[in-house]
Amino acid sequence: MELLEQLRSGLEIIVDFLILLLEGISIFCVLIGFIKALTCFPGWNADQRNGLPFLNMRLAFARWLGLALEFQLAADILATTVEPTLNQLIRLGMIAVIRTFLNYFLEKETTEGLKLKREIDPK
User: Fold this and answer.
1) Could you tell me the residue range of the domain that residue 82 belongs to?
2) Domain count of the chain?
3) What is the pLDDT of residue 18?
4) Is the whole-model pTM more than 0.85?
5) Among 70, 63, 68, CA closest to 26
6) How far is it, in rounded angstroms, from Cα 95 to Cα 70?
């Protein structure tokens, strides 16, 4: 039994580290997306015709937000692996549904934005 407790303790440490790492990567993705979006801001970019900078800004940020959400979901999944309680599983389910909807709409907006971008500037 003592060996099992040590293994469980070791697993908890590894999972806690991985959760922290995934959440850090998620924050980093949001930061990169923010910086990429700012580089598309009108006045910082020479390509300002037809409202493209704002569309480019939204598309750049949406892509990185989608990636950040994937890392957050992975962290939430890991958080429930060590000792899942009913409340944690319900919370994970709710978070997964919310993030799935967010990802769906981010992907939809990105796809529509890319289509609009091709119509405005077919190069």
Assistant:
1) 2-120
2) 1
3) 96
4) no
5) 68
6) 11
